[in-house]
Amino acid sequence: KILITGASGQLGFVLTKALQFKYGIKNIIATDINFHSSLEGHFEFLDVTDLIALKQMVVDYKVSQIYHLAAILSAKGEKDPIKTWDINIKTLTNVLEVSRLNNVKKVFFPSSIAVFGNNILRINTPQNSNLSPSTMYGVTKVAGENLANYYFQKYGIDVRSLRYPGIIGHQSLPGGGTTDYAVEIYHKAVRNENFECFLEPFTMLPMIYIDDAVRATIELMEAPSQQISIRTSYNLAGMSFSPKDLVMSIRKSYPYFQVNYKPDFRQEIANTWPVSIDDSKAVQDWDWQPEFDLNRMTKDMIANLKKQLLTTK
Ligand code: VAH
């Protein structure tokens, strides 16, 4: 059985569906502290900071793989850094310890481009960059990558990880990230509303469409173990664009779409992140190739959000 934490989150919700489809709905246990009403299949409430509850679930359902997606994101994390440290680190150490003691074979841990901070090459940021993150979220991801690597080296737990760019999808909303604008903007456009953007127009960031993000995750987890040369976390690229590029792409369908720029504290976070990512290790080791560029993503987002609007009216 495969257990997912954070299954009601932006990525968790879509990844749960993909795993149910691939491995059979009966073999997936989706967990979260909140219930997403569109989730189907086996769901359990689980607070992953509760070691005993997590252990119980792993033992009861004979879990052999865990996808640990529950975490606090970058922008929200800055409102309460210590809580972010406590939750992100406690949940990961719980997952790794329970895995070590209960024969869980494989673990997935999401890292992020937030591991990078000042002192990097911001264009085509290399895999082996100096990691000095500017947010507590990034600090927990750097620590998490090292914990993952430690559990692999010391105990042989097959932990695998990706440094996701900002994830964009129509199925679910992100919660508290610096890249969230790129999802919210589409929701406004299809409603013919104006958008207030919290980043400046030319802030270029690495992003990925959720279909590509989910496929990358499954491809990494399915790759033969001897092909995995990186046990901290793989750089992963999809596309790179700025709010201005995104607006131009949306205007192909909504020529009168208006955006006001009102940068807030998230601008400072974005300023320390890469513009684009060198993911040649992922390409080499497990053949990574993204399918969506900005315009293809925009078409798909708009078509799907329009459908959603019609069915909820
Ligand atoms: C955030 N979307 O903005 C997340 C992410 C790319 C960064 O990990 O916090």
From TrEMBL:
Gene3D superfamilies: NAD(P)-binding Rossmann-like Domain. Belongs to the NAD(P)-dependent epimerase/dehydratase family. Pfam families: Epimerase. It comes from the Bacteria. This is NAD-dependent epimerase/dehydratase family protein. Residues 2-228 form the NAD-dependent epimerase/dehydratase domain. InterPro entries: Epimerase_deHydtase (IPR001509), NAD(P)-bd_dom_sf (IPR036291), NAD(P)_epim/dehydratase (IPR051225). GO terms for molecular function: L-threonine 3-dehydrogenase activity. GO terms for biological process: L-threonine catabolic process.
